[in-house]
Amino acid sequence: QVHLVESGGGLVQTGGSLRLSCTASSSRYAMGWFRQAPGKEREFVGYIKWYDGSTRYADSVKGRFTISRDTAKNMVYLEMNSLRSEDTAVYYCAAGSSAYTRWDLYGYHGQGTQVTVST
């Protein structure tokens, strides 16, 4: 069993930055970030492979968001820059035995943290 807790969400202005953290009770092969905006389906943001730190991002965040990990602390970070109003969503982390772009393929999921980007 892996327990995931996200933190770092909040209110930020357009163009601003925010860093989200995901604390995991233990590591898994890959950690993913997802988000869900009001009235929309949950969507893939990016993932990081635990063993080598390789990453993959959704086109909508590529070049603005960066995922990193701290293996000693079992933590994963989502650095978000140049934030836009359309980035407003609840952000979730997930852990799994492989690197997926689908939420339901991850075995463990966090409860989410709200990010609101104001104009």
Protein architecture, described:
It contains no helices and 11 strands. Strands 2, 4, 5, 6, 9, 10 and 11 form a 7-stranded mixed β-sheet that branches. 0% of the residues lie in helices and 50% in strands. The chain is globular, with a radius of gyration of 13 Å. A hairpin with a 5-residue loop joins strand 5 and strand 6. By secondary structure, it is mainly beta. The protein has strands spanning 4-7, 10-13, 18-24, 30-36, 43-49, 55-57, 65-70, 75-80, 89-96, 108-109, 113-118.
Q: Extract low-pLDDT stretches.
A: none
Measured as a percent range, the helix fraction is: under 10%
Largest sheet: 7 strands, mixed
Ends apart, CA distance between termini:
40 Å
What is the tally of helical segments? Answer: 0
Oligomer classification: single chain
β-strand amount: over 45%
Number of DSSP strand runs: 11
What is the approximate shape?
A: globular
Mean pLDDT: 96
Classify the secondary structure makeup into a structural class: mainly beta
- Give, in order, the helices and strands: EEEEEEEEEEE
Q: In angstroms, what is the radius of gyration?
A: 13 Å
